[in-house]
């Protein structure tokens, strides 16, 4: 059983930056592909970014390409989402997800993941 805990959310002005962290426990982190998803009120959960277990492959949703970056530190059992040039439409709850049996491209779909964190809120003011 893998337990995920996100942190780093908060309130930021448009154009600002935040870095989210997701710490994993209970599994072998270096074998887990990781994903980031977000969900705004009244909307479906959507893919943001994914990274393979080896960090050799990353994928991003079109709305965040060039602004967000995901990377991982296997020694710290942590995956990060660096968010720059934030926009009000980035406002959402952000969730990390993990699965040992998928690649980063497969990880673009929420259904691929067995483990989810509780989420952290990001609010971008205009």
Entry keywords:
126 residues; 7-stranded mixed sheet; mainly beta; 4-stranded antiparallel sheet
Describe the structure in your own words:
With 126 residues, this protein is an all-beta fold. 0% of the residues lie in helices and 48% in strands. It is built from no helices and 11 strands. Strands 2, 4, 5, 6, 9, 10 and 11 form a 7-stranded mixed beta sheet that branches. Strands 1-3-8-7 form a 4-stranded antiparallel beta sheet, with no helix packed on it. A hairpin with a 6-residue loop joins β4 and β5. The radius of gyration is 13 Å and the shape is globular. The relative contact order is 0.31.
Task: List the SSEs and their pairings.
Blueprint: E1 3-7, E2 10-13, E3 18-25, E4 33-39, E5 46-51, E6 58-60, E7 68-73, E8 78-83, E9 92-99, E10 115-116, E11 120-125
Parallel strand pairs: 2-11
Antiparallel strand pairs: 1-3, 3-8, 4-5, 4-9, 5-6, 7-8, 9-10, 9-11
């Amino acid at each position: 059983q893998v337990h995920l805990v996100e942190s780093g959310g908060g309130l930021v002005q448009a154009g600002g930056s935040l870095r989210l962290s997701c710490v994993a426990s209970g599994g072998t982190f270096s074998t887990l592909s990781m994903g980031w998803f977000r969900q705004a009120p009244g909307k479906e959960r959507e893919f943001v970014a994914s990274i393979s277990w080896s960090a050799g492959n990353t994928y991003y949703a079109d709305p965040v390409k060039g602004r967000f970056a995901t990377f991982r530190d296997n020694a710290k059992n942590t995956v990060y989402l660096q968010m720059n040039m934030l926009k009000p439409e980035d406002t959402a709850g952000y969730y990390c997800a993990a699965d040992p049996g998928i690649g980063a491209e497969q990880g673009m779909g929420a259904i691929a993941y067995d483990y989810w964190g509780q989420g952290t809120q990001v609010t971008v003011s205009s």
